[in-house]
Design a protein that fits this description.
The complex is a heterotrimer of chains A (250), B (56) and C (222). Chain A has helices at 6-12, 15-47, 61-88, 91-123, 131-152, 156-187, 202-234, 239-246. With 250 residues, chain A is mostly helical. Classes of the chains: A mainly alpha (250), B mainly alpha (56), C mainly alpha (222).
Chain lengths: 250, 56, 222
């Protein structure tokens, strides 16, 4: 099998080879995401029964928890790509990292947004300084810093390497930040709230995990499409890009 | 489970919170999809334009 | 190697002594920010002493961050930094000396000033001493972490605001344990754990930040 040879993967890390591959893969992930969204939403709204305590407001959880998971996961994957790009100087890895950043920031924001709308009926406040909420806010700051640094530097090579280093610094700090926020929260007792009082039925789990995969595939589809734009932007002087553009894209 | 469509949209009185969450999430997703597609089209057009200008 | 580090330290201090205003500006910024709080919150002694640790720490964070811009900027502009990069001495060690000088010139004055400001905010003597101790242990971490951000934003347009955006989230653990120590002591929990963790953060930062800063400078000057 071609897939198992090292040469195949090395070849794939060249932007020129990866560009059409990403173009072929993205629609499949998009379709899979769409199907999973439909299934997940159907189960979440028409199969899962109302919670006996939170009634129908708990249905926010089906999208909130996947968003929160993916927001964290995307940050780790992004920093992983950044690290690979920094160490082995593979251009495609840093491009993938910058393709993931905006989506990760958006997922973090949406996680906070849905969390606030879930928190209001559950805890009576849109925002509480709970350890999880606070660390998520900080995660959003980290994403913002990453993107701001990348956008501020004109030279794309330097921009991607600088933001990659920042990502690495961030990943070293994430456990420390999370631990310190937790500590801070337990010190200021009376503010902490238990997140879930929901007894999870199988249908609820199915809805949540289906939507988690839906968000995952959505992220992959978006990142693959965005990385194609980034490849075009950074390689715009390469002959194959010019030929491609003259032929009208695809 | 739901007796009528209006019952469904009322979400047991939590309509604002539930639809406020899902609505914004899918609005953002739709916007991101549109932006990503437009970005790729724009860059291709720009490269093609520059290539034409260089030839002339 | 030690020689080079000591030379660098003296060079930095000598340069700063020639421009005393810069050191004093940071210090006065710290004093002004702290003095603004009573004006904003109200002069009730109870409230002020309650928020004093947080206020002092946030002000220290901002003051230390504002002075970061100059950490590498001048050496970058006159080309000295390029020489250091090409030089025989390991860059991380030179960077460490620069950070140490930065702390001596900006962090240490804040520590020395904090008892006076603590008194202004109505802290009792024990809290003031503890406060100064947390600043003494914690501010080196601010200079160390900040130096990575300063290296990354070197020569970037809008560098100052960008630097704040990059560095402030990373300062959060220092803020939490620094200002938390005084609270913990007041509630009778004891501040030992806070002080140990604060020390651990500073040591960890001292081990990693010079290398990260050196890498950042290499990227910026590439």
């Amino acid at each position: 099998m071609q897939i198992f040879t090292k040469a195949f993967w090395l070849q794939l890390s060249s932007p020129k080879v990866f560009y059409p591959v990403a173009g072929k893969l993205a629609p499949w992930f998009a379709i899979a995401a769409a199907i999973l969204f439909v299934i997940g939403l159907y189960v979440g709204f028409f199969v899962a029964p109302p919670d006996y305590q939170q009634k129908d407001s708990y249905r926010i959880m089906f999208i909130h928890v996947p968003l929160a998971w993916m927001a964290m996961f995307v940050y780790i994957v992004m920093c992983g790509y950044a690290a690979i790009g920094l160490i082995w100087k593979t251009r495609l890895s840093t491009m993938m990292a910058s393709a993931l950043a905006p989506t990760g920031a958006m997922l973090t924001f949406l996680g906070l947004w849905t969390g606030a709308l879930w928190g209001k009926p559950t805890w009576g406040a849109y925002w509480v300084w709970d350890a999880r909420l606070t660390s998520f806010l900080i995660l959003l700051f980290l994403y913002m810093g990453y993107m701001a640094l990348e956008n501020a530097i004109d030279d794309p090579q330097r921009a991607s390497r600088a933001s990659a280093l920042l990502g690495l610094v961030g990943i070293v700090n994430i456990p420390i930040i999370y631990f310190s926020v937790k500590w801070w929260n337990t010190l200021h007792q009376g503010m902490s709230v238990s997140t879930s009082g929901i007894s999870m039925e199988p249908s609820m789990k199915i809805a949540m995990f289906t939507l988690a995969f839906a968000v995952w595939f959505y992220t992959i589809a978006i990142a693959l499409t965005r990385v194609r734009s980034i490849i075009l932007e950074r390689e715009r002087h390469a002959a194959w890009v010019v030929d491609l553009a003259k032929a009208g894209g695809r | 489970m739901w007796n009528s469509a209006s019952d469904f949209f009322a979400m047991g009185g939590y309509a604002f919170y539930v639809w406020g969450s899902y609505g914004v999430v899918f609005l953002f997703f739709a916007m991101e999809i549109a932006l990503v597609i437009r970005r790729k089209r724009t860059i291709l057009q720009r490269i093609a334009r520059i290539a034409r200008m260089n030839r002339e | 190697m030690i020689e080079a580090m000591r030379w660098m330290l003296w060079r930095e201090i000598a340069l700063a002594m020639r421009r005393k205003t810069e050191v004093l500006t940071t210090l006065f910024f710290f004093i002004i920010v702290v003095s603004l709080f009573p004006l904003g919150v109200g002069p009730e002694k109870e409230t002020l002493s309650q928020i004093a640790p947080g206020v002092l720490w946030v002000a220290a964070l901002l003051a230390s961050m504002l002075s970061l811009n100059r950490l590498y900027a001048e050496d970058y502009l006159d080309g000295t930094l390029e020489q250091f990069l090409l030089g025989a001495q390991p860059l991380a060690l030179l960077v460490f000396s620069k950070i140490l000088a930065h702390w001596l010139l900006t962090g240490l004055p804040l520590v020395l000033m904090s008892p006076v400001l603590g008194m202004q905010l109505g802290l009792d003597v024990d809290s003031i001493l503890l406060m100064a101790l947390t600043l003494l242990i914690g501010t080196p971490a601010l200079s160390l972490i900040g130096s990575v951000g300063a290296g990354l934003t070197l020569g970037v347009r809008g560098g100052g605001v960008l630097l704040a955006l990059l560095v402030l989230p990373l300062y959060i653990p220092v803020l939490i344990f620094g200002s938390g120590a005084v609270d913990a002591a007041r509630t009778g929990v004891g501040a030992d754990a806070h002080l140990s963790i604060l020390g651990a953060i500073s040591v960890l930062a001292a081990l990693l930040a010079p290398w990260a800063s050196a890498a950042a400078l290499r990227i910026s000057l590439d």
